[in-house]
Amino acid sequence: MRRLPPLASLRTFEAAARQESFKKAAAELGVTATAVSHQIRQLEAYLDVPLFERQTRKVLLTVEGRSLYPALRAALDSMAEAVETVRKRPRRCIATLSATVAFTAKLLVPRVGTLRSLHPGWDLRLHASDDTVDLNAGDADAAIRYGLGHYAGMTALPLLTDRFAPVCSHRLGLREPADLLGATLLHFDWGPIASRVDVPNWRSWARRAGIEHLDPDSGISFNDESSAIQAAIAGQGVALLSLSLVAAELASGALVQPFGPVMEGLKFSFVYPEGAENRPAVAVLKDWVLAEFAERQVAPPAMGTEATGRPAHSR
Q1: What residues does each domain of the chain span?
Q2: CATH class of the structural domain 93-293
Q3: What are phi and psi of 141, to 5 degrees?
Q4: I need a labelling partner for 116 at 20 to 30 A (CA). Which of 54, 70, 145, 284 fits?
């Protein structure tokens, strides 16, 4: 632990020693000459040595004062330089974007580098949560939301219309919809959105595919989409998944889409509070997200012909 007198008294001493005048030191420091004299007396009492010889028009350093002054001046100069460096350093700007855990992991993380290429002075903070954040409260600057595309008090810009189809590991050897009768179905919890709108599920898909004896509720359930994706990659079963979120796995062969039909899901939208488009963070995120996603087909195109022989179509 450093044993030092008050910084104010050291600063006052340095100014008085450099100016050789309490009056001039007072003018530099913006205090009275009396205040300077008081600070010097406090320092001398702390050190128990005199630091100045008081003369009529100036003050002169004593031997002890001359010993203290050079080191103290160098220390204060170094402190001032460090403070100025920090003060002039450009502040990093941070833009916070919220999205679901699955969307963040599968579609945002692989693209994070492009934001700083577009806007070098900005840092990105990704808020991954399946809970809806309060953008008006500042929990995030903007969000990517999944739904019908209309949000009260918000501007919503369409990014992608999602599509769903059965996907699995090629190791399962599925070839046609009837093969599902002997397969394990994988499910994930849609959360509150399922109570407001129809979402793709195995029951509606089986009806669409014309499979009468499939038990749409059987299999393994997960509370999040990411876990269902990982289970499908691991060959634990077949999942009805977003083709947008598993585009990379389909392209690499980690997953296959063995058959249709393909079902249309909901919309991914870039969302921010109405009137906030001129906020710097919102503008940066909007520029980046639209450049990456707007009107792009993230998932591979749907199969031209299903295994059943019927043309592929979507709801």
Answers
A1: 7-88, 93-293
A2: alpha beta
A3: -80, -35
A4: 145
